[in-house]
Design brief:
It comes from Arachis hypogaea. The protein has one domain. The protein contains three helices and no strands.
């Protein structure tokens, strides 16, 4: 029967020796303090058992390689999460700006309507003023009309 190797998050297969580490009652025998530190740093200290070293020198490098791959995968995962948070912040900022733009557009529309109304009112007042001046001219002639225009200009200032 062929042994199947479990996969780490990134799809890297454990080596045959590490497969036996995961199978109780067999345990991992390590030759160096560096391998122990590496397994602890990678969060795999449960693989360590207190069996005296049996001279498996190549196991140290195999464990170090797997630990390095695990470290790289954790770093990639952290980078992915960081990128997700960044995209989320950018999306929130974009939505906030979009809301501000919508408010400004509404304000511009209201101001435009107010300006149109005031322009229309100004036209009406101007027409009314012209008709009053025409009536004064008809009633009192040119002399009084000029006097009225001058006095109304002084009153406005």
């Amino acid at each position: 029967m062929e042994a199947r190797f479990p996969k780490v998050g990134c799809g890297i297969e454990f080596m045959a020796l590490l497969w036996f580490c995961l199978t109780p009652p067999l345990g991992l025998t390590v030759n160096s303090v560096a391998t122990v530190r590496c397994l602890r740093r990678c969060g795999r200290s449960h693989l360590l058992v207190s069996i005296p070293p049996q001279g498996l020198g190549s196991l140290d490098s195999a464990v170090a390689c797997v630990c390095e791959e695990l470290r790289k995968e954790r770093k990639r995962e952290a980078n992915r999460k960081c990128a997700q948070r960044k995209r989320k912040r950018e999306q929130e900022a974009f939505q906030e700006l979009e809301g501000s733009v919508a408010k400004l557009r509404t304000e511009v529309q209201l101001l435009h309507e107010e300006l149109t109304r005031l322009h229309k009112e100004n036209k009406e007042l101007d027409q009314e003023n012209n008709s009053i001046q025409e009536e004064i001219f008809k009633m009192h002639g040119m002399k009084l009309s000029a006097k009225f225009v001058i006095s109304s200009a002084v009153d406005e200032v």
